[in-house]
């Protein structure tokens, strides 16, 4: 029976892929994915066959991957970051439905919460929430409600999709909501292009974050009440020193 | 200048380590960690020098790693899962303080939220919270408050440390709190020994989870309102099919 791997490739560079992800990409006959991510892995596996679809064509992309696997190919469907966190694994299971063919193996990868945190320092040492500001598939009211609860619960927050075409002010709006609960000087961070050539990290206050320019290659971190800046790093102590 | 790598080794097997983590363990002179995790990597890097400390000796372990790096060794301090999420990277930065010596590089790894989710199916496709039930360093009231907010915000929840010696009923208590907000038949999951020989995954309802036996090698997942069981997998659709 042919196999469909749903592979989290991490932030995009080879070094941050797992051994298992690399192995799946070596073993498969065909790599399917969103154009930008396929371009990221193409240089490491140039001899493979590739199929790409545009950004919002998730159902088309997953159907294509399942179809090719049904035809007998071993297929690797790639996702940036983790294959689960805002990834394609759920849609693959949904579209496959109540059958076990093709065989599906979900291969986890480094999500931006973890790879971005490592770049900033250690902002997620304690309980945290991961919230996307994209309202393409989620009502803005739901997103706002989640931000409110996360702030009230003193969870650190990793914010995905802080901005994109058509919604340039989502992060500013999110900061306004968070500022109802959190102080202006709360430590925050922005990561850009994690694991790629232009990778960068910036630490700033929540007030400053409100004015910051972000794009779709950014991941944003909101510190919890314990979070501080130590020697240019964003650090959330867990309390080991006070046991 | 010598270097201190803080390395997330993922769930414990070689395949789920990143290329970068493997490289750091190859490059270093000394591997420092909690005994159980050191035993996990020893078989892959048998020629290395190792230093281990007991479970609750986090400050001692990190001080030791910094000390050895100061002496001129390249040190890899290993953490299970990610080096940030409930890991040692924050404590390393805290203990190093306002200096840049030794050079610290945080290498992210697969945290149990991602590796466990992949095992269960795709429970974390949408916004989620990561909450530890360990009250060794966090007041139980804070944990309860976070569970309440996560449930009210319809966040999926990855629960770390659902149980340990001295607090065998924390998961049961957590389920009672969640049941104030969520229905009894809410889909949940338990992962055991992720990435290890006895790895297993189980899907059950929140009501059943309350009675489930868990140990310190378990990670627990609470589905959000959209979560369902498809062909034995725990799946949270993100809504791509309804765009």
Task: Write up this protein.
The structure is a homodimer of 243-residue chains. The first copy, chain A, is elongated, with a radius of gyration of 19 Å. Chain A has helices at 19-27, 35-42, 58-70, 89-96, 112-120, 140-152, 170-178, 206-211; strands spanning 3-8, 30-34, 49-53, 75-79, 103-107, 121-122, 128-132, 156-160, 187-192, 200-205, 218-222, 228-230, 233-235. In chain A, strand 9 (187-192) and strand 10 form a beta hairpin. The model of chain A has no long low-confidence stretch (mean pLDDT 95). Chain A is α/β, with parallel strands linked by helices and 243 residues long. Chains A and B meet through helix 1, helix 4, helix 5, strand 6 and strand 7 of A and helix 1, helix 4, helix 5, strand 6 and strand 7 of B.
